[in-house]
Amino acid sequence: MDLFTLLGKRRDEDSDLPASADEVGFDAAALLAGGVPVTPSEENRECLEALRAVIDPEVGINIVDLGLVYAVACREGGIDVVLTMTTPACPLSAVIEEDVRDAIWEFVDPHAQVRVAVVFEPAWSPEMMSAYARQQLGR
């Protein structure tokens, strides 16, 4: 599946989600390819820990344990994050995206160029949550 297909699944017509790879500035599909969504490099682990500070305001659990973070890639000068929302109609998507940038800047690198892509394929499901998140939600 190419990036345009991934990003073509927009929240709604008024969404500010990028419509193409050119608008995103990185290939989210390439980060999602390969079966292991998050590379276990030290930099990526640091980014994931920073992203644990981002709490989904509707659920009260961090986006990593909720399974919303699909991929993290550290590159020279910046960090790319591919994530999803629990539903394409999430009214707080822009808030979460901004919180992702703020967390990276605060805990990893205040000068990093942070690029965030919100995708809806694969669709999020409760099975993507960590054991901790499931326990917190009584599942």
Automatic annotation (TrEMBL):
Domain MIP18 family-like per the UniProt entry, residue ranges: 47-105
Superkingdom in the source lineage: Bacteria
InterPro entries from the UniProt entry: Fe-S_Maturation_MIP18, FSCA_dom_sf, MIP18-like
Descriptive protein name: Metal-sulfur cluster assembly factor
Gene3D superfamilies linked to this entry: Fe-S cluster assembly (FSCA) (3.30.300.130)
